[in-house]
């Protein structure tokens, strides 16, 4: 994957930041600090062109 956009954030609420990358082909990957051999822990495809990524508390739950 050639990254076009990236962000750091705690997407799984484990108090550790994950590294999220996306590209212009609509592929998104999430990497944890413990990823083996640089393999993502989650991937999504066919999301459309990804030009930026935002991570935040969208439910305003404080997490």
Automatic annotation (TrEMBL):
A single GO BP: regulation of TOR signaling
Protein name: 9012_t:CDS:1
UniProt xrefs under InterPro entries: Integrin_alpha_N (IPR028994), KICSTOR_ITFG2 (IPR031793)
Highest taxon listed in the record's lineage: Eukaryota
């Amino acid at each position: 994957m050639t990254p076009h956009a990236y962000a750091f954030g705690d997407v799984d609420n484990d108090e550790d930041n994950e590294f999220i990358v996306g590209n212009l082909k609509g592929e998104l990957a999430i990497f944890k600090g413990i990823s083996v051999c640089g393999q993502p822990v989650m991937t999504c495809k066919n999301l459309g062109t990804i030009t930026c990524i935002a991570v935040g508390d969208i439910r305003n739950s404080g997490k």
